[in-house]
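Why does this matter for the project? Reviewers at the last site visit asked to see concrete outputs rather than summary tables. In response, this paragraph embeds two records directly. Each consists of the residue sequence and, immediately after it, the corresponding structure tokens. Nothing has been edited or filtered.
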Amino acid sequence: MYGIGAGLAAGLAALGAGIGIGLIGGNAASAIARQPEAESKIRATMLLTAVLVEGVALFGEVIGFILTNK
């Protein structure tokens, strides 16, 4: 019974994180192309945001593992 919920939790978290990190990277590349002098600030902000998005995906996977152990 919890298997479907666990799969959805982990799958949607991974899907959302993949889309989010892709958008972050694409927008950062576009911003660096427009303002090359701000590359270090843009890159730092991009990496921090990508790490936070990946953290949310990790929470989704942990919830999936917890649901499968019940």
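We now turn to the second protein, recorded in exactly the same manner.
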Amino acid sequence: MTERIAFQEGDALLMIDIQKDFCPGGALAVENGDLVLAAANAWLAQAEQQNVPVYASRDWHPLNHPSFAEEGGDWPPHCLQDSEGARFHPDLVLPPDTIVVTKGVRFDQDQTSVFDQTGLAVHLKSEGIRRLFVGGLALDVCVLDSVMDARAQGFEVVVITEATRPVDTRKVDEVLGRMQAAGAVLTDQEALADLTAGPDTAEDPDVCVKAPEWAEHQRLDDDDMPCDDGRSGKI
């Protein structure tokens, strides 16, 4: 179940590893990984409009990284430092002041979480960030590990379901369930629509429109005498 949640003070937006190698045609392509871009860009634009801090992580592996299969790891070589595949997807529209978090640089272990020895948790707390909106690739690897670590660090977490995709589509329900069990909340594109729509200006026939400061004052029935201050909405 998703919830309608708006940005507020103390929030930040975190986009995880939306890099060319994780998108179709890349060295470790996530199926339909590029489909996260529309949702990611919409949330990024809204964050920029509301001055919400934006963070973007990237895998940045050295040669012979321990996550590579040839070194005993689980994955083919990907996101090699300074390679084309390590670049953010060209259609990802990051605000100019986006803070980039680099991970996966160690020679002795992988770093699938953006919080694994990056100092990010300390930085966020020093900036007064209490809640993270999270999307990116891949749902069942780096996004999952980052969400779980964020919760362990005491951050509230909102997972933008339409801005993430898994390596293994069979694991989606399990992964989302684990996130929710840890206290994360799920939201979707409809929440962003609610966020950008602004207040409803249409007249509500059951609410007085003559005195906005009495917004919850109900109109009187036709047989009742109207309020003498106009709160009934009757002339």
